[in-house]
Amino acid sequence: MKRERQEKILELISTRQIGTQEELTEELERAGFVATQATVSRDIREMKLTKVAMSDGKQRYVAYRETPQNLSEKYIRIFRDGFLSMDNAQNILVIKTVSGMAMAVAAALDHMEFQEIVGSIAGDDTIMCAVRSVEDTVKIMERLRRMIAGDD
Questions:
Q1: Mind listing the pLDDT tens digit for each residue in 56-112?
Q2: 117 conformational bin, left if phi > 0, alpha if psi -120 to 50, beta if neither
């Protein structure tokens, strides 16, 4: 029953503009499925549905599939949102972030898998990355600048 309900949910959100759990519950009932709002809420969480904004400002549910491309874009966005500045001390790359964002930015940086970065540590607003060489540090800084500028 759960699998059928979740399949119906996917069908409904792909064919209709459903923006609330209540609307989804009503549509399920019209389709012959009895489900409480709590059940629909669990289904949404399990199915990793997300809301997107439409051109009219309203939101609707969509099935979100995390592909490597989606994840890459997410990490770049996190990096851009938290980034303030960077500098180097030989082969140590120091990145300044918005207060409280260093851990998130460092995690995003780690997931970008720069082979030149050996490891990183983060505080509240500063990240220190150990880079293999001074030359690699310069290369990484240039790549990060291009990424921040949107030229990635």
A1: 888 888 886 655 565 678 889 889 999 999 999 999 999 999 999 999 999 999 888
A2: beta
| Cα separations in angstroms, 28 against 8, 41, 60, 108 | 7, 13, 16, 38
Rounded to whole angstroms, the Cα distance separating 143 from 150 reads 11
Q: How far apart are CA 41 and CA 36, in angstroms?
A: 9
**Which DSSP state fits 148?**
H
* pTM of the shown model: 0.56
What does 48-108 look like in DSSP terms, one character per residue?
TEEEEE-TTS-EEEEE----HHHHHHHHHHHHHHHEEEEEEETTEEEEEESTT-HHHHHHH
